[in-house]
Automatic annotation (TrEMBL):
It comes from Methanosarcina horonobensis HB-1 = JCM 15518. GO terms for biological process: export from cell; proton transmembrane transport. Gene3D superfamilies: Calcium-transporting ATPase, cytoplasmic domain N (3.40.1110.10), Calcium-transporting ATPase, cytoplasmic transduction domain A (2.70.150.10), Calcium-transporting ATPase, transmembrane domain (1.20.1110.10), HAD superfamily/HAD-like (3.40.50.1000). This is Cation-transporting ATPase, E1-E2 family. Residues 1-74 form the Cation-transporting P-type ATPase N-terminal domain. It comes from the Archaea.
Length: 909
């Protein structure tokens, strides 16, 4: 369908044209065909998600215990057990539901964009809004958003391996094909889910969503991966270890209790409750929510994490390899200088506003204005505008661009001289092109000049080239000088090379331009097909001039790089710019230090792997490199033991992004292929956002470790209290329902509140964490046993005092029950930071924790003073004196930790 029709028939059948659909027609078709997206598998219903919270074997045991209690006439115990199980299920459900919503938000934020022509104008829209009949533009690196018939192509090659398994990119055509052509051979079609490997083109959409070839298969890979994180695996392993140990102890003590005369049912219920309390089964869910909340905070800081495990990697990153353009700089290239007809000109104006002048002189001092009618200036800017895939347009009084910012700067400069890009494209149409590649470092177009332009451009077909100065100069044998085309002498080449260096020394990116009138009978089709080699066409060119442009550094980047330095993170710049230009920008930003090295791609190629590995730690700038070099840099740094973050935006960056510990794609300029290969996407393409993400990643990891240690101390404390009490005094200090309640309220709100704790003030002055170090280290285990032991000592002190005072069992259990809850609330404030005093942080700087603790305290007071809850939990009211004892003992949990932090701070100083 469509592949066997001429383009005019395709337009007719789809009721569209090369100008695309009108916005109104597109809206109607969106209602008719639906969004351009694949139907996901049926989501788990809210009810099923809730039921899934009760799959735990321990939950089953608790439910059985409640049934046994009811059968034996202990209705109250049965109801309380079921109630606590229900509340635990609600808590787990809320956590999972919030995590699910966080993932859905991330999916929506990563919806790919497509460039479409609507009503004759180019615009970028979410690919989900595409409809049959839309005309889309395709260029190297784009992920094709829907099935489409090609209507124009320039050396368009598409990687269809994801659909057909064919590893070699397919050369596309616009020709109609026979009706019996197999799908894999339909070279005038492109398919959703495949990627543009080379060249560019224009196509009209024929099918969207589930009607596409991919929609008929399993579907596209999801942009957000929900996988079990190493944190969760670590927690599961830790939970199994502590769970196994606890179950052995619980079984031993339960059997011992029966031998000591305790009722078997009580010991069974107590054993089950203590096992549930001791095993931190809620921690993986809390960790997932903590990661999800952290990821959502990252979105606000312009960093979109595609894979939750990457959050952990962020905290350990100690080298960031960053592209220069757009990441370290503003990505708003502005032409500031030109070399034409043997003279340097200064170009005024800023950004994409096409207002400015061309002044004689140099970049520091300038003289009289050069007329836009100057023939040398016209030839240079004509080539800059025609050999160009960018556009300039005005939207709501703001000048905007489509395409590459470097090319856009050339269009802006040409517009300053009165050249309108759209008018030039209409008047001098492009018949063929040799696209830019990182290997060739140049681009050449073949334009029809049927009415001629000047005496030296009187050919009907002219080739215009732009690219790296050394490449363009190497292909030139002539120069346009003083109104004539003359032979280019070695002395003139040397002079031009000196000018390139002079402009580069001033941190300008320099491009060279040339042209060549082509002989009559030259066939652009033969160039497109490869019949005439590119090298044959791109020789014997006429040099027309140089353009120097500058992309100023982002104001916030210099401070961000200093933050990285303080945090023990090395920043490395990787750019295709000239070595001198790159070094100048790197020095300005603070990346290139006095003894640091700068390597070019050719210098890198000349080094053996061992030689490079010996130098890699000293290199701060890589200039004139190909994307393929990035992979070698990543591998060398990883061999040295570094955790490497690598940025990229092109299709050729994908291998390096995958190989890096943290692949970071550009959200604005990045291709779909680079985004899919990445672990994180920068929504603003800003280096400072990487640093913010590293800080957030460190903070998430810090918070997770802190609330795990908080939970660990609670579980250890409960086990020790009951174990020692039953062995030492042959008494149960807590009832089963009380243990379950403690477990419910202490593992509920406080850990969630700790997960939103803001970063410590010194977090980015700490060295990156060691990746060899697990989540639960000796320090956390020591803190867990230390604080757990302290809580147990507090409870046993109350136990001894209560027994000496002759208190009833209910009073004794209420005292210990309440003491543990309040001690854990003091403990929650301990773990806002493992380094800084809670008083130096400010008691109310984490309001969520304050509210969580107050809520927990209110719930505990209700259990003690509300009559029907008293009856259910076997509690009795407490006197003011008893409250004083509880608060005094419980507060030592906070006081002792404050003393430890003070001593540790003194040692660090």
């Amino acid at each position: 369908m469509y592949y066997d029709q001429e383009i005019s028939s395709v337009f007719e059948e789809l009721r569209t044209s090369e100008k695309g659909l009108s916005p109104e027609d597109a809206e109607k078709r969106l209602e008719e065909y639906g969004k351009n997206e694949l139907k996901e598998k049926e989501k788990v219903s809210v009810f099923r998600l809730f039921l899934s919270q009760f799959k735990s074997i321990l939950i089953f045991i608790l439910i059985i215990a409640s049934v046994v209690s009811a059968a034996l006439g202990e209705a109250i115990d049965a109801v309380v057990i079921l109630f606590t199980v229900f509340l635990a299920g609600v808590l787990g459900f809320v956590q999972e539901y919030r995590a699910e919503k966080a993932i859905e938000l991330l999916k929506s934020l990563t919806s790919p964009e497509a460039v479409v022509i609507r009503g004759g104008s180019e615009k970028e829209i979410p690919s989900t809004e595409l409809v049959p009949g839309d005309v889309i533009l395709l260029q190297t690196g784009d992920r094709i958003p829907a099935d489409a018939r090609i209507i124009k192509e320039f050396n368009l090659k598409v990687d269809e391996s994801s659909l057909t398994g064919e590893s070699v990119p397919v050369q596309k055509t616009t020709d109609a094909l026979p009706a019996d052509t197999a799908e894999a051979d339909r070279k005038n079609m492109v398919y959703a889910g495949t990627a543009v490997a080379y060249g560019r083109g224009k196509a009209v959409i024929t099918a969207t969503g589930m009607k596409t070839s991919f929609g008929e298969l399993a579907g596209l890979l999801g942009t957000i991966e929900r996988s079990r994180t190493p944190l969760q695996e670590s927690l599961d392993k830790f939970g199994r270890w502590i769970g196994a140990a606890t179950l052995v102890i619980v079984a031993f003590v339960a059997v011992l209790g029966i031998f000591l005369g305790f009722p078997p049912l009580d010991m069974f219920l107590w054993g089950v409750a203590l096992a549930v309390a001791a095993i931190p089964e809620a921690l993986p869910a809390v960790v997932t929510v903590g990661l999800g909340l952290g990821v959502r905070r990252m979105v606000k800081r312009h960093a979109l994490v595609r894979k939750l495990p990457s959050v952990e990697t962020l905290g350990a990153t100690n080298v960031i390899c960053s592209d220069k353009t757009g990441t370290l700089t503003q990505n708003k290239m502005t032409v500031e200088g030109m070399y034409v007809n043997g003279k340097i000109l200064r170009v005024t104006g800023q950004g994409y506003n096409p207002e400015g002048k061309f002044l004689k002189g140099d970049l520091e001092k300038s003289g009289s204005e050069v007329s836009a009618d100057d023939e040398h200036l016209r030839v240079l800017l004509l080539g800059a505008a025609l050999c160009n895939d960018s556009n300039l347009y005005k939207e709501e009084d703001v000048w905007k661009i489509t395409g590459d910012p470097t090319e856009a700067a050339l269009v802006v400069a040409a517009t300053k001289a009165g050249f309108e890009k759209s008018e030039l494209d209409r008047k001098y149409p492009r018949l063929a092109e040799i696209p830019f590649s990182s290997e060739s470092k140049r681009m050449t177009t073949f334009n029809k000049l049927e009415d001629g332009l000047d005496s030296f451009l009187d050919s009907e077909l002219v080739a215009f080239s732009k690219g790296a100065p050394e490449v363009i100069l190497g292909s030139c044998t002539k120069i346009f000088l003083n109104g004539e085309v003359k032979a280019l002498t070695p002395e003139q080449k040397q002079e031009i090379s000196e000018i390139v260096k002079e402009l580069a020394d001033q941190a300008l990116r320099v491009m060279a331009f040339s042209f060549r009138p082509l002989e009559e009978g030259f066939s652009p089709d033969k160039v497109s097909s490869g019949e005439i080699p590119a090298e044959k066409v791109e020789e014997d060119m006429v040099f027309s001039g140089l353009v120097g442009m500058r992309d100023p550094p982002r104001e916030e980047v210099k401070a961000a790089i200093k933050t990285c330095e303080d945090a023990g993170i090395k920043t490395v710049m990787i750019t295709g710019d000239h070595k001198i230009t790159a070094a100048a920008i790197a020095r300005e930003l603070g990346i290139l230090k006095e003894n640091d090295l700068t390597l070019t791609g050719s210098e890198l190629d000349s080094l053996e792997d061992k030689e490079f590995e010996d130098r890699v730690e000293k290199v701060s700038v890589y200039a004139r490199v190909y994307p393929a070099h990035k992979l070698r840099v990543v591998e060398a740094l990883k061999k040295k033991g570094y955790v490497v973050a690598m940025t990229g935006d092109g299709v050729n960056d994908a291998p390096a992004l995958k190989a890096a510990d943290m692949g970071i794609a550009m959200g604005i300029t990045g291709t779909d292929v680079s985004k899919e290969a990445s672990s994180m996407i920068l929504t603003d393409d800003n280096f400072a956002s990487i640093v913010s993400a590293v800080e957030e990643g460190r903070n998430i990891f810090k918070n997770i470790k802190n609330f795990i240690t908080y939970g660990l101390s609670a579980h250890i404390g409960e086990v020790l209290i009951v174990l020692i009490a039953i062995l030492g005094w042959q008494i149960l200090p807590l009832l089963a329902v009380q243990i379950l309640w403690i477990n419910l309220i202490t593992d509920g709100l406080p850990p969630m509140a700790l997960s939103v704790e803001p970063p410590d003030r010194g977090l980015m002055r700490q060295k990156p964490r060691n990746v060899e170090q697990g989540l639960i280290t000796r320090r956390e285990i020591a803190a867990g046993f230390g604080l757990g032991g302290l809580i147990a000592a507090q409870a046993l002190t109350v136990l001894a005092w209560a027994l000496d005072s002759g208190f009833s069992t209910s009073k004794l259990q209420t005292l210990i029950f309440t003491l543990i809850v309040f001690s854990e609330m003091f403990n929650a404030f301990n773990w806002r930071s493992d380094r800084y005093s809670v008083f130096s942080l400010g008691l109310f700087t984490n309001k969520a924790l304050v509210y969580a603790v107050l809520t927990t305290i209110i719930l505990q007071l209700m259990v003690i003073y509300v009559p029907f809850l008293q009856f259910a939990f076997r509690t009795v009211p407490l006197s003011l004196y008893e409250w004083g004892i509880i608060l005094a003992l419980a507060s030592t949990t906070l006081i002792s930790m404050e003393i430890v932090k003070h001593i540790s701070a003194g040692k660090e100083r």
